[in-house]
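Question (not urgent): is this output format expected?
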Amino acid sequence: MCWNRYFYWFMGLLVGVSLLAGGGYFGARSLMVVETESPHDFQNTIELINVEAKKLDWKVPKIYRLCDSLKKDGYEIRPVAVVELCKPEYAATLLSHDATRLVSSFMPCRISVYERSDGSVVVSRMNTGLVSRLFRGRVAEVMAVATEETQTLIDRILAARSGGAAESETLPTLSHG
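Got this back:
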């Protein structure tokens, strides 16, 4: 009889740990990446990111059109682009000190824009607000401010009327890397 009690206790513990681990695995993925549906088409979303980034004093050094790059290798995929964002002030703050250079692998910031099979357009980015909590001091401060500004940029895109960037705006060179 004692054996049965331990067996059920162990099985309950095993099931609980399995559910916790599975929930953590699948939950972590949705916590690490933030997705927002854009009310604009693919190209206008990219153009609006560029325009709004400039308004917030961010640079857009490069836009990678992954769909074009893969097309060169014979693969047809729906539109996907990765937009690099950089605020030189923040980058210099983190890259000027040996102790904070470890986050250079997160730089520059990136926003992905992609089109789903149903035609909807998604703006996707790393949840830097969550990641910033893993750090302290200067890194946490800079990442928190950058996260806030990036979210402001995305909020402005969502609120913008269709029509894309002004004709006078010049987009950065598109890379097919």
